[in-house]
Amino acid sequence: MWIPLGDCSVETGGIIYLEGSHRLSREELAPLRKVTDRPDDPRPISHDLSWVSTRLGLRWMHIVSRAGDITLHNSHLIHASLDVTGEVMRLSTDLRFARRGDNIDYRWTIPWSGNDGN
Prior knowledge:
Elements: E1 2-4, E2 15-18, H1 26-29, H2 49-56, E3 60-62, E4 79-81, E5 92-94
Antiparallel strand pairs: 1-5, 2-3, 2-4
Protein name: Phytanoyl-CoA dioxygenase
Keywords: Dioxygenase, Oxidoreductase
Organism: Candidatus Protofrankia californiensis
């Protein structure tokens, strides 16, 4: 669950989704891990969003959110946030839920950091 704490547009670094990416297999995503300009920080996929879109033939889609909106998405749907291009930056939070006993991706259990690669 992703919740903007203020109005959130493309200019404020809004969230984007790679259309249909939750249907991709691990094999289809594997080549995306190799393209990065940050060899010291392995990423789940390349952070070159344009290249990812071209490579997979999928579109990036953005949403415009208002304070208090709630966006629910599948954790396997590839998503990212855009760079801030305006005077105000995005402030948001996310909440993650899992059933007891589920196999949880360890990346979502550690404290966030600016270079965590998630």
